[in-house]
Amino acid sequence: MFKKQNDPPMTTSFRVESETRSSKGVSVLGPTLTFRGGELSSDEDLIIEGTVEGKIAHQNHHLTIGKNGRVKANVRARLITVYGTIEGDLHGDEAVQITATARVVGNVVAPRVSLESGARFEGSITTKDDSRAAADVASPETVSKLASGVMAR
């Protein structure tokens, strides 16, 4: 069930952010594990090497779909890295990384998206910041403060 991950390292920016924010361990769903139905969530980073069908809500953490991972679900996580196969929409609060070995069928929404050469991807990519931050920036009060020089960015 638990195994050491041998996937290629993530890009430095993703790894550094993940290591600095994750104070807990990492859970690994091994290649023989199958999860169907319901919602999968965890309070630590998660690596999926098995099969997951349903919904994955993994806010505040890094989700990795390993080379053996097969996911059929809509996914929301802070960081998402895909080495395996996923059918479903990906929503990364900070970033989504689709590696050369990945196969993704679905839409991707995140402030930063990385799509490596060789990856198989069918869907759309939308890069936008968190809607709450965008709403704050666009509020009349914020615009007024910015215009008057009260707020420094």
What does this structure look like?
The chain is an alpha/beta fold and 153 residues long. The protein has one domain. Helices cover 18% and strands 45% of the residues. It is built from three helices and twelve strands, in the order αββββββββββββαα. Strands 1, 2, 3, 4, 5, 6, 7, 8, 9, 10, 11 and 12 form a twelve-stranded parallel beta sheet that branches. It is globular. The termini are far apart. The N terminus and C terminus are likely disordered.
Summarize the structure in short:
The protein is α/β, with parallel strands linked by helices and 153 residues long. 18% of the residues lie in helices and 45% in strands. The chain has one domain (12-148).
Question: What's the arrangement of secondary structure elements?
Answer:
Elements: H1 12-21, E1 26-29, E2 34-40, E3 45-48, E4 51-65, E5 70-82, E6 85-87, E7 90-98, E8 103-105, E9 108-109, E10 112-115, E11 120-122, E12 125-126, H2 131-138, H3 140-148
Parallel strand pairs: 1-3, 2-4, 3-4, 4-5, 5-6, 5-7, 6-8, 7-9, 7-10, 8-11, 9-12
Keywords:
153 residues, alpha/beta, 12-stranded parallel beta sheet, 3 helices, 45% strand, disordered N terminus
